[in-house]
User: What shape does this take?
Amino acid sequence: MLIGVVTLVFFLFNVLPGDPARMMLGQRADMASVEAINRDLGRDKPLMIQYLSFLNDVSPVSCHTSADKTSTFYYDPHRYSSSVQLLEIGDLSLVVKKPYLRRSYQSKRPVSEILSEAFVPTMVLATVAMLVATLIGMILGIFSALHKDGWFDRISLIVSILGMSLPSFFAAILIAWLFAYVLADYTGLSMFGSLYTVDDFGRGEYIDLKNLILPALTLAIRPLAIITELTRSSMLDVLSQDYIRTARAKGLSTMKVITGHALKNALNPVVTAVSGWFASLMAGAVFVEYIFDWKGVGVVIVDGLEKYDFPVVMGAVLFISVLLIIINIFADLVYGILDPRIRYA
Assistant: This one.
């Protein structure tokens, strides 16, 4: 999957219109300066050479030459931090290193440094949103299943449909307007703000959890609606099984039947939904972060696209892909814990 993503990302962003060198130099760009910057960026090489160089950079194990300093594959220990040379055969060296995502065209900062700063706010936002969505969604789904076709079940169904059909950018604007403008005197919330706020009295940055409420609430709406419906349908299916009727016939209380027998067997589709949504929220939740000015991965992606800062956008996409794969692997492990049949298979 990662090889496919790397290949797709590279060729996609290298056939897009626009010359980064001209964008960096502005209207005063001349051919000599443009050629010099493209040479420094390695964009003067054939496309396949650029692709192999990109693979070499992002791979944790890469091959380099130590003879020709002008070569695209020259091993520079200052470029690859924390590198360890495994093997050397003639001019070729096999190196283990941190994946190198290159530098921003605009700020000249390492892309990994930019993403590491944006990762923490996005991680906090996505985690809080998914915790809220998962806990409330599962509780609502269980109550809906236990009171099938009742008034609570019908209201829950209507709310879930509205939540699933509500676009995130519209929900963000609506929630920001309602709670941070109309009801601002009562809520004390602001339309804009990130995890870190600069103190007005010169004491530096501090964590402001108040700014987390509105974007987390906005992000939680759609996964909450889906988790509610999945939990309800899965619980209804499990509650109709023979072993549940046997448990009830033995005189077990409803709470013990739900917690000890039904819920664990009903969680597999919920785990799938939670892992998928958490991965998508970790992708940056671009619209929500941009509307609330939450300084996360989403804002980094938008800024990179606006400025044609290809290394930042490419690095962000690869970073998100790695997170998605890790989360999916973790979800597979959870399946085995919840369902012994999967583990034994």
